[in-house]
Specification:
globular, Beta-Lactamase
Length: about 160
């Protein structure tokens, strides 16, 4: 049995392609954003901040990208099972993990190629459009797939 395994990860070239697509989408929506791309371990690969994007968008986009990469799942209040977390539960998870490791605001998405998470992409600065713009970026890579939460069954 092998004692090590290789890990596929987004390259700098791929990250730059994601950033270009996200910035183009933000410009079409007249939004000023920061966009970050992380490898599967949550380490920053590439980053861009549009000229008039708020300073707070830097850290937020990087933390969202890290979370999406760690979890191989979009950031936000929905769990992988499709259950919506209460504000209290979402905050408790963030505090337990550390705000640099877990962000429950939407806008971070996993970069999935052939069923494997190769990183995370995230946007901050466009409000409720952060997630949509991040998906535009992530899906700019050839073969990229969407991974979204299941829809929870209503409780009786």
């Amino acid at each position: 049995m092998a004692e090590t395994v290789g890990v596929n990860k987004v390259t700098l070239e791929g990250a730059q392609k994601i950033i270009a697509a996200a910035v183009k989408e933000a410009e079409s929506r007249k939004k000023q954003i920061s966009v970050a791309v992380a490898d599967p371990g949550g380490h920053l690969v590439a980053f861009a901040r549009m000229d008039k994007a708020s300073l707070t968008t830097l850290t937020i986009s990087m933390n969202k990208a890290r979370t999406a990469a760690y979890m191989a799942f979009p950031t936000g209040k929905l769990s992988k099972e499709g259950n919506e977390r209460s504000d209290f539960h979402a905050l408790a998870i963030t505090l337990a993990c550390g705000p640099e490791n877990m962000v429950n605001m939407q806008g971070g998405v996993p970069i999935i190629i052939k069923g494997e998470c190769v990183g995370g992409a995230a946007v901050s600065g466009a409000g409720h459009a952060d997630g949509d713009i991040a998906w535009v970026g992530a899906l700019a890579l050839e073969g990229a797939e969407v991974r979204k939460p299941k829809v929870a069954e209503p409780k009786e």
